[in-house]
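Dear colleague,

Following up on Tuesday's group meeting, I ran the structure prediction for the two-component complex that the binding team flagged. I've pasted the input sequences exactly as they went in, so you can double-check that nothing got truncated or mislabelled along the way. The structure tokens for the whole assembly follow below. Feel free to forward this to whoever is handling the docking comparison.

Inputs:
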Amino acid sequence: MRVLAIDTALGACSACVAERGAPAAISTETMVMERGHAEALLPLLERVMAHAPGGFGAIDRVVVTVGPGSFTGLRIGISAARAIGLALKVPVVGVTSLSALLSPIVATAGDRVAVAAIDARHGQVFIQAVAPGGRVVVPARLATAREAARLLGSGNIMIAGSGAGLLAAEAWSVGVNATVAPDALFPDPLWVARLGALADPATALPKPYYLRAPDAKPQEGGALPRA
Amino acid sequence: MRVLGIETTCDETAAAVVETDGAGRPIIRSSEVLSQIAAHAAYGGVVPEIAARAHVEAVDHMVARALERAGVELSDIDGFAAAAGPGLIGGVMIGLTTAKALSLVTGKPLIAVNHLEGHALTPRLIEQVQFPYLLLLASGGHTQLIAVRGVGDYVRLGTTIDDAIGEAFDKVAKMLGLPYPGGPQVEREAKKGNPERFHLPRPMQGRPVADFSLSGLKTAVRQEAQKILPLRASDVSDLCASFQAAVVDVVADRTRVALRGFRDIAGHPTALVVAGGVAANMAIRRGLERLAAEAGVRLVAPPLALCTDNGAIIAWAGLERLRMGIQDDLTVAARPRWPLDASKDTRAGAKA
């Protein structure tokens, strides 16, 4: 199965083409950026596909990171992925950015708890953590860095993601030995492809996974009093 | 030539397939519109983040449905048009990204359409009106008078310096406790009311430039209402009728000024065209009919489904551009503000 993976949920615009189970991508490109994904993604996809023999016609599945992350960023990736899926008549699956960050460090974490932490601003992080052996310690959620450190307990931890520094500082302050995983600020598109190749299209839907409600309050009042 | 058009600039997720026959006459093969009104009603207006969340879940389904209804495959499409602004940027990016992806996979051209151009070229979609004509575009987000001289050749003669007309209707409805969207509610109440009971201003009346200002009128409605609290049902109807009568006068006066300005730059218009959701208001329509008769021009009012936001007008504008050889590349950016007439970019308070 050949997969096209797309990630625009966090601080990068990336895509790769990979065969399921292959150790390396056929074609891949990552541009580090905080904003500008909307303008960068399609030209990047054009380049990535140009280096993949068979082009779009050889793609069996499209994978996209669905968040949590930048609301705008993840919607760009999802819109593109769903449109490509529509055009190619192939399944589109979603992978959370937390699991895409977690998977590569699980192997290197050893006896430590592997943690993905994405900076959610205002001192908060999107967090997910798994213990050695795969038991979920903290399911995906939004928490303050302090709450997150408390949820992780007292064992040694290894953290990936843009919120790693923030969470590590909190962990250290309560005496937990925390390591920040190197080069793990945003998902590696090859890991997005790997997870997507294994996902079940019936359940891993390409829908945004915001983990945060829209900042809008229903309006009441404002109307003049009626007799 | 056959173009797929995508519209996501406000609170409708829409897609359509429009083509031309051998003689270049337009045919709307399909036009699918999903309105988000219910999702925004509790907030009393369109919430950008809620709109964007709805667009991303729906736009690919609308494209699929538009193709299916048209009975065509993606490979039968000659170009992909999306409204690239002006509008709520989160939604605009979703529609534009969708069109870019379809263009990349199929290798067919991308056309980034100005949403306002979609409205501006609608009369040519329904009855092949010839250039030049005067367009009054009036909706919840836009209020502009535009001389349409050709595809891509627009001169804005007037715009609102504060609220759009539809926005003023919605705000008046809200202060009077009428449900959202308020335009049709105000019109319904106005039918029962006395338009002469309250003396409301006609802002900008007689000014030589065809700009609008609605915010003072809205404030005047509030002040009149506050004098007679609490409001009885008949008070609400009378306030609505008086407000609507003032808007009808303002629209006629501003459009009359624009017609005068039009002659200086483009000669005699082939028609006066009204588009945008406000064109659904029958009192405003009648006012424009009177004005058109007085000025010796024809009034063209597209059917309501083409006045409000939809994919067909975007597909058509895309088709008009594409057959002139105009297309865009994959780097084109969505634009929250995008005046049709670039020379008027900097006017204070001018929306879009």
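Chain A has a mean pLDDT of 95.

Cheers,
M.
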